[in-house]
Amino acid sequence: MRYAHSNISRAKGVPPLKPQRKPTNSVRPGGLMPSKKKTLDPAAPKTRQKGDDEVERLEQLEMVVSLRLTPTDHERWLSKVYESGQTRSEFFRSCVLGNKTEVIAKTPASVDKLRLIWYFNKASNNLNQLARSAHQTRKRGMLDAGAFQQVIRHLSTISELMQKGINDAD
């Protein structure tokens, strides 16, 4: 694929652009895509290969979904995937799309809480500037250790009170 500009420059360390894949509309008459599934011999050993879904799809799987897990949750998830005999993608699709999950919607934050978070984000920026200034003044020898620790304690207290205010807002 050729780009409109051949002299595209990029920042140092940024990987080169990848061309976007355009979706294909090659559909057989009757509305089905050509089947890529192989008929399996029942006597053949059961081995899973990438892309061995139980379902024939009308569209290609193109969209990627990712999530983050703790190492403990990741181990639990992998054990469930292994027990299911499916690939990770098949397992995830079967759980989410097969409605084997219970969706618990988060309650949206109130307007007051969102406004409070906005103000606290602005104030946090100022607290960081004060902490940096105190640290630099301490490094120059213009602030003794006791006064520096007192400034840091006060900034920590303000930060904790702000967090408590956000938690108690609703």
Describe this structure in words.
The protein has helices spanning 71-84, 88-97, 111-139, 145-167. It is mainly alpha-helical and 170 residues long. Among the domains are: 59-104; 111-167. The longest helix has 29 residues, at 111-139.
Q: Topology of this structure?
A:
Layout: H1 71-84, H2 88-97, H3 111-139, H4 145-167
How do you describe this structure in short?
The chain has helices spanning 71-84, 88-97, 111-139, 145-167. By secondary structure, it is mainly α.
Oligomer: single chain
Query: What is the arithmetic mean of pLDDT?
Result: 75
Question: Low-confidence spans: pLDDT under 50, at least 5 residues?
Answer: 25-38
Could you give a short account of the major beta sheet?
none
> What's the overall geometry?
elongated
Helix percent reads 40-55%
Distance between the termini: 52 Å
Order of helices and strands: HHHH
Structural class determined from secondary elements: mainly alpha
**What does the radius of gyration come to?**
28 Å
Helical run tally = 4
Number of strands: 0
Beta fraction:
under 5%
Features:
about 170 residues, mainly alpha, about 45% helix, about 0% strand
